[in-house]
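Team,

Forwarding the record for the chain on the shared tracking sheet. I've put the sequence and predicted structure together so nobody has to dig through attachments.
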Amino acid sequence: MGWGEPPFTVMLIIPTGIGAAIGGYAGDALPVARAMASVCDCLITHPNVLNGAQLYWPLPQALYVEGYGLDQFAAGAWGLRPVRQNCIGLVFDQAIEPELRLRHLQAADAARATLGLSLTDAVITDAPLGVRLETAISGATWGTIAHPDSLLRAVEAVIKREGATAIAVVARFPDHPESAALAHYRQGQGVDPLAGAEAVISHLVVRTFGLPCAHAPALSPLPITPDLSPRAAAEELGYTFLPSVLAGLSRAPQFVRWPKTGLEPSHLQPQDLWRDQVNALVVPESACGGSAVLHLNQTNTTLITVAENRTTMQADPATLKLTTIQTQTYLEALGVLVALRAGIDPITLTTQVNPVACLHDVSHHSEAV
């Protein structure tokens, strides 16, 4: 960053549960995030990109922001306030069996003892959450919970009694070890069957309490398979996906409401980050229909799409009439970001530079205006 230049801020979005070729599995978009963080001062992204089950990578430049909070930020309603450390509240689904619950408690103990994280005691919901998995006609996954009220009571308890400033939810998900969808996913060919339901849980908590939240599913270990895809391998390492969630939530930014939505201007701080500070947004080419993309398209943020990252969606820039810089790969997108950071028009790095034209009838146009 040069003298007097503002930080170069990039947002990386790979939506959950839409079968993204990169980012549709546990942690397989982490290499993209690591590379992108090296060419910007601040990278804003979400748990689907940074969570790798028991694997994670510390990125000091990255802000770990749940999807609903990301949408509110892109809409200009919320800002992001970096923190040194959150106190993470643990909420466990009553439906988790005693042995599986113990495995997750031990994972939390390990994260506290080895990573120095601040964790609360776990609060167990007063009823089984009743997670149900669904698949849309497009192939995208989603889900429901039968007792959202039980989840919200547990979250409220861990905030009021334990002083939590971020929330990690562990819900018991259905086991379908013999399903064809899971078999395809493990072979690197399908859609994550859990991701859509996980988003429902975290969205509900963030929308209700305005605190960072992420979810880790509790599942029985799967039978070993010899033809496992490397992209799905992170989910096969043990009994829990909790470590990467806790690592991400530890420094997840707090949400700050814009003054027009109720916060007094005096409560704002210089380090607070707002949407008009986002220089570029990188998103799969076929997944441009999300709230964050459409909101940031109304600002000066440069939208960069990646064609190679195929998804089950069909929301492309042409259909939505969005102005974008289209790239084929994340390698190419990284080159565009390097050019933008250097203050170079990316088109001048290609052979497509057109000559400067003269505009006629300028005086007539000025009078009309």
